[in-house]
Amino acid sequence: MNHTSEHVLHSTAADTTIDHIGHVHEHDAHHGPRKGILRWLLTVNHKDVGTMYLVLSLVGLMVGGVMALMIRSELFQPGMQLMQPQFFNSLTTMHGLTMIFLAIMPGLTGLANWMVPLQIGADDMYWPRVNNWAFWAMPPAAIILWSTFFIHGGAPNGGWTFYPPLSGSFGPESIDWMIVSIHIMGISSFFGALNIILTILKMRAPGMKLMDMPLFSWSWLITGFLFLLAMPTLAIAATMVLSDRNWGTHFFESGGNPVLFQHIFWFFGHPEVYIMILPAFGIISEVVPAFSRKPIFGRKSMFYATAVITFLATIVWAHHMFTVGLPVWGQLFFMYSTMLISVPTGIKIFNWVATMWRGSLTFEAPMLWAIAFIMLFTIGGFSGVMLANVAADYQYQDTYFVVAHFHYVLVSGSLFGIFAGVYYWLPKWTGHMYNERLAQWHFWLSVISMNITFFPMHFAGLAGMPRRIPDYAVQFTDFNMISTVGAFIFGFSQLIFIVILIKAYRGGKAAGARPWDGARGLEWVIPSPAPYHTFTTPPTAKQLHDEGPKAYE
């Protein structure tokens, strides 16, 4: 039975349902989805909202990827080839903003919307309507951001960090629109995160303790609190820039202090890095036990390591600023606190490897992505420890070594984690198994080309090549040619991924309720594809026991 839009706008007693913890829902419970576009515009179903986030993430990945290939095309050889330097700087700025706010973050949020209620036995999110609103704020923000390319003066060109004075009164007028877009995305993220926190704290199945939750849901609970800390901080920094540009204040203009902006921005920016990696850690902690057919090694230490990383993430921001003239005691504090993060992160790496040790391993696509994540993210971690060393960082600062570092943690970290999660849960979403042969092609082409793209950047950076420049000295040519070839292979490999998604959506081998025999968790007790409404009655104590932490005993 389908609802009219009136049911959403004017809830009646008949349309109000109370879930198993007494939480009132005013939405289309017990009904199927609407037909046509209204289903997506008015939906309050967590699965629909999750799907929309994932589609937005895919669009963001493609748009940001095209920008990346334009950047690499210009850098294929020295000299100016295809574009003006200002447009090149706009591309690097917009590529960063797009990949962070419109690819990685919506991808992880989409996975959370889909899977967190299923993993904790909830029938939906705590605030279903806010969930719809939080998503639908994102496409207008994306359009505002991308449309700045067509504004007089061009798109923002001061880097995704929009440091003053580059983003001050000197910058193009498009920076105002970029700040508006960032505000909208920040508000959306804030309410989305608050919704996830409340869902986990208030709507877990009766009998499920916090420490019994799957590690993906736990990682999102912790990440949610990082969102609540980071997003208002970004809003403060962006508003101060907007005020300097339009209302004559002098926070960062002459008489003000541009370094203050860097402190405020990175107090958001470093937690943001962990916002993008902690949910990916949670995905790997789901995938590795499933394909090792063993419980996760050191389960409690995984919970505590996530919490420790989250705390440390809030006290290391100035390691992005070692060269701005911090006092020596400040440099030492931020150096040692940054290096300390490698301890809880190392615990996670060792626990994943120990989980695989003597496991009954199979290497389907989700497991391959998880193993690539563990190996390549560790390389990014090593270069991060190098960058944390103040004396060395004076050499690495603003070179391609930094570019190599953060792409190893964001591409082979966050993005590979999203790929692992999508392949792992895709049968549950579509009811069909994906094409394993195509998935293997996607994996191997992506992993090999990713290393061809980013590994030479370490050497270019150590040799002294600065980042964010459209032209470079001739001695860096070979490294850049190799990187550009790798980037195009990586970019076109993602077309295979789109084909895999379309084929799985349209049909294929039917997936059972538990397509992976080693998978455990409440999401695997419901049929595939997941019904439109799930857990309208709470999971039983037996289900909680059989799918909980002691599932493999």
Model description:
The chain is mostly helical. The protein has a single domain, classed as Cytochrome C Oxidase, Chain A. The protein is 65% helix and 1% strand. It has a two-stranded antiparallel ribbon.
Keywords:
553 residues; mainly alpha; Cytochrome C Oxidase, Chain A; 18 helices; 65% helix
Read across the widest sheet, the strand sequence of neighbours is: 1-2
Q: Might you state the CATH topology name?
A: Cytochrome C Oxidase, Chain A
CATH class: Mainly Alpha
CATH architecture title: Up-down Bundle
Mean pLDDT: 93
Structural class estimated from helices and strands: mainly alpha
- Spatial separation of the terminal alpha carbons: 43 Å
Largest sheet: 2 strands, antiparallel
Residue fraction in strands: under 5%
| General form | globular
**Overall number of structural domains:** 1
Uncertain stretches: 1-18
- Rg result: 23 Å
Order of helices and strands: HEEHHHHHHHHHHHHHHHHH
Kindly report the name of the CATH homologous superfamily: Cytochrome c oxidase-like, subunit I domain
Helix content: 55-70%
DSSP, total strands? 2
The number of helical elements comes to 18
